[in-house]
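Annex B. Sample input.
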Amino acid sequence: MVTRGERAGDVTPGQRTPLTEPGSPAETEPGSPAEPGDAGIGWQRPSPRLLRARRIQTGLATVPAALASGLILGIAASPGLGLGTGLGLLAIGLLWERFLARRVAAWGYAERDDDLMVRRGVLIRRQSVIPYGRMQFIDVTAGPVERSLGLATLRMHTAAAASDARIPGLDRAVAAKLRDQLATLGEARAAGL
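Annex B, continued. Sample output.
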């Protein structure tokens, strides 16, 4: 098997190189909690701008909902009820933001020789292993908020719908490189090379 680093001629045979530079924010921090059996796995994390994107999306949903419901109930029922409802929705949005910070911190992915591992989840931790040979297609998507921050989401599709996985919050260039690398590895493994 020829890995990305071998094509460039900068690593020894069999050594895999991550798409992020060592010490970059996308690499797993030494103090981050590890799951049992994670020893030796070089987890990489999405960009820190993913949290900013999620906060913007939460604000774009929470603030208009709080204003609209506060105004409608303030006019239809009483100003106190409208104010209380609006403030209550803003409080729910702030609580959701705290949950989002933990949720974003839970995302990680690791490239291994035969597969890609993706982990996520706060309350329910989920760790998916996607063999390169099982990937049918890989796409990169970006909504308006992600595009404005230079981010993209990489989504891997396999024959089984339950095994589809995604990695949000990647820099656009990293997402494109990872897409091309996974497609190449998937074609090679599917062909039995």
